[in-house]
Design a protein that fits this description.
Helix content is 35%, strand content 15%. The chain has 279 residues and is of the alpha/beta class. Strand 4, helix 9 and strand 5 form a beta-alpha-beta unit.
Length: 279
């Protein structure tokens, strides 16, 4: 088995990130030919597992651009991040945040957009990637004394992994990413969570994720199950989710959540891991 690179880890803070659950989730992943992750987010499971062949997807275009840029032009990204680090001040943060309100934003290079997102993510309040109804980044300044804006070791390690393994990066509807999944594959699903009192943040894209989409996702899981494809799904621990997936194996796990707009709603919460196979 190929040795994992310990420097391959999430480059972004992400609401609902799975870094603290690696010790629980990774042992649950069975042998497979291709790893699928249609809701990539911060990528903690992908980078913790480092499969040789993977198909990953997210509907967040800015997020996917970060991974594509690290894959294709890490040095250009690093140079821009160093510039952001030198100029990091409150007024500068808001100046960079405002770029997606400008008519020329789409003319920025992929490297410029990726560096902007990483910079904002590392310096905004509580590392919360949040957009408004128009898709514009709207998290305020975080007031960190010495944020790590440019982590060169992680960027180069991720670049090497993405180039030396067969990792296909998609940006679109998760159903399209699962369209040609085969029985020998494994699917890890980490959708925007069903809102509950302690975890109500879902808007990391313009549209959010609705109850109807949660039900639709359950139907997709049923289709995977009928094909004989093994899947593992993470979600919030709430009656709707437990009722939807009552035919599958449900395991509750306590998780310390630090990213939430309301500080009173951070702390230890229960989440569920749902699977259609025995370990």
């Amino acid at each position: 088995m190929k040795k994992k690179n310990s420097f391959v880890e999430p480059i972004l803070k992400w609401a609902g990130g799975k870094r603290q659950l690696l010790h629980v989730i990774l042992p649950l992943i069975p042998e497979h030919t291709t790893y699928y992750e249609p809701f990539l987010g911060g990528g903690a499971i992908l980078f913790g597992l480092q499969p040789k062949k993977a198909i990953v997807n997210d509907c967040n275009q800015e997020l996917i651009n970060v991974y594509q840029t690290i894959r294709d032009n890490p040095q250009g990204l690093i140079d821009l991040l160093k510039q952001h680090s030198k100029q990091n001040k409150e007024h500068y943060f808001y100046q960079i945040r405002e770029l997606d309100r400008q008519p020329f934003y789409n003319a920025l290079s992929p490297e410029e957009r990726a560096a902007r997102i990483i910079y904002l993510n590392r310096t905004c309040y509580n590392g919360l990637f949040r957009v408004n109804g128009k898709g514009m980044f709207n998290t305020p300044w975080g007031r960190y004394r010495k944020p790590i804006i440019c982590n060169e070791k992680v960027i180069w390690a991720m670049h090497q992994y993405l180039n030396h393994s067969q990792v296909r990066i998609l940006c679109g509807d998760y159903k399209q990413a699962l369209k040609y999944v085969r029985k020998t594959a494994f699917v890890y699903l980490d959708p925007p969570y069903m809102p509950i009192n302690t975890a109500s943040f879902t808007r990391y894209t313009r549209s959010g994720f609705t109850v109807e989409q949660q039900i639709e996702l359950k139907e997709q899981c049923d289709q995977l199950n009928k094909k004989g494809v093994r899947f593992l799904l993470s979600n919030s621990c709430c009656p709707l989710i437990e009722d939807l997936y009552h035919d599958y194996i449900i395991e509750k796990v306590p998780v310390q959540r630090a990213i939430h707009a309301d500080s009173s709603r951070r702390g230890i919460v229960n989440e569920v891991l749902i699977r259609n196979y025995e370990v």
